[in-house]
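hey so i finally got around to running both of the ones u sent me last week. sorry it took forever, my laptop kept dying halfway thru and i had to restart like 3 times lol. anyway pasting them below in the order u listed, first the sequence line then the structure token line for each. didnt double check formatting much so if smth looks off just lmk and ill redo it

first one:
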Amino acid sequence: MKLLTLLDKQLMSMGACILDNKNVQVKKKILFLGAGEDQAIAIRLAKEMGIKTIAVDENPNAIGLSIADIGICTYINNVDFLIKLGRKNNIDGVMAHAVEIPQVVAKVAEELDLPGITPEVAERATNKLERIKCFKNNDIPHPRFETAETSEEAKIKSEKIGFPVVIKPLDKAGARGVLKVNTKAEVQAAFEEAKGFSKLRTVLIEEYLDGKEISTESVVNDGEIYTPCWADRNYSQSEKYYPYMVEDGGELPTKLSEREKKIVEETVKRAIRALGINFGAAKGDILIHNGQPYVLEMAARTSGGRFCDTKVPLSNGVNILKQLILMHIGEDIDINELTPKYNKSVVERTIAPKPGEILSISGIERAKNIEGISQIYLKPEVKVGGHINALTNNAEKIGYVIAIGDSHDSTIKRAEEAIEAIKIITKKEK
């Protein structure tokens, strides 16, 4: 533990505990907001690149705090604190990976004159209502929508759109508080649940569209938009989770035809430009309904769920996260590094045991030994005596399997065989 300076003491008085893990002399320094499992991948990568890393997270046990050169336990949305921290450490860049806080990143970057988007753009790309209004004003295809502040208003607006509809909070990611509603009788419960996830009074109601759903991830650099990251989202288990919108992993490369891919890519570019995202990552959720791509989401951040940091590099060799780190510390990037180098099949499937107390866990080693299994992950809290909750959103998933292979069908088979091998026995609690 290093000796505390006056500023350190001031920072600690604001609720921070500071760990100086290593005194490393390097040319560039980057501040990461968030230090959980996803964020630790970015922290490790930056260190491998020779960049000094400072990470903050409100969880003192966040793995990235011990990996970073300096780990600080504090709230990641305390802008004043982060500005003081960045100024004290003379940082060259600030970013977040797989965390829905673009506004915080943007405010810190603007105050310290670091690379990034403006706070206004960050807000527009994060608040679901502001975003969909932007799409409407710029003729970007999107679901029809309404807003409501009471359950009675939600019933009226849902009938106006026509069932089924999707009700969601304006300020949450990972499908938290997002529910599909088939009838008027279901609206009140869905409205109350969505509102319970939000700090805002208003909820969003959208028409439900069916079709192929695609995840994209783009890099915006020097006025150009590059989209090397594509995946088909898998909702084959959607009825199992109804009314919640939980996906069962995904598959790369996309099975879209070249024509479909072309029109999706053009729609992605139009959405990014309409929002004003002129730097860094832009994460899209696109749905093709009756041949027309609709933008469900375009966020000014990187994706979670191991999409851009793990599955894309496995599938096509593009390390988008590395290029974004370079951009955020003001370094030039080689756009050739955003060009796919090969084309392998990558399939992820969700580990989703029945809810209840965990009685036993087995089959992990057997699953690991299946040909083509690249990763098996379970959250640390998944252990005998622990508890499994019913899945209501993507953030609650307890684990996953990632398989790789040369053909789509064989890779799906490998992933599903691994899921079948993993036995998590639970006892339903009263």
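and the second one:
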Amino acid sequence: MAAIVPARNEAGLIAASIGSLVRQDYKGAWCIILVDDDSSDDTVAIAQRAVPEEYKERLRIVASRALASGWTGKLWALKQGVGAALAIEPRPEYLLLTDADILHPADSVTRLVQHANQRRLVLLSLMVKLHCQSFAERANVPAFIFFFQMLYPFRWVNRPSNSVAAAAGGCMLVRTDALASAGGIDPVRGALIDDCALASVLKRQGPIWVALTTRVSSMREYPTLADIRGMIARSAYAQLRYSPLLLAGTLGGMLLTFVAPVLMALFASGVPRALGLLSWGIMGAVFQPILRVYQLSPLWGFALPAIALEYLVFTLDSAYAYARGRGGTWKGRVQAKASDL
């Protein structure tokens, strides 16, 4: 068993993340491969200091080579981490692909492996609990999960007969032999939405599973609206395959679904107003399960149309950034055009 953690300038988060991994209670052979993705800060040194002396042998450092043409940064780092894991003897049965901002409880790996073995999964992914403290986070993080589930209904993803595939990149347990049969990381090398792209490739190899969790969490903060905008705009247009037609259809569909009912409820009369109020109420009701996960007031359900409108603006911003050659910007890298190479 090996965990692969790509990290680029994660000095503020890496100690807690690596610390949670080295203290896992997993009983089998176990190591963590930290791939330093050309960090300019003290990510590696801090990670090494975070490991108690008795666990030093569990942490291995891989220095990423220069970013190859046609690859996004994270996937290039993952490829090198996977290569290092496959060189271990005996070869690990599973690989845990996890981010440098993720906190795992001590039994996380044990539970993931048990669940994967029971269901004979080639991929098990958890949508971790995202940081949700600032006003911007409370207004947008639950909606992010809600819209993700609209795009990729988990029941469909978890059904082997259904072609819909998705995963959450913060926590993905992958069967090593299935990943090798799928061609490794190479088939998705240019994907901005790398987790869902990898899930699609792996679902051809066998059953996959995705679920929400509150036990595994992300420490990454999005304190302002600008931070939220950056998170969403980075990949929103990629989700639409950089298609102006899909962009127009999405904008029309979102306006009709989320905005039009509110306008009818506020400004129409009679039956149209009643239908608008009913639709607005249904929206708020279906949003409640996610709000409960994040322990937020049910009144946030009434704000869903406004949040949807905000997401539309971020999506337009994503398309505009792509048109300007700045799409997919993340930690100093412009990556959106990598998928065209």
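quick thing i noticed on the 2nd:
The CA atoms of residues 250 and 264 lie 20 Å apart.
anyway thats it, ttyl
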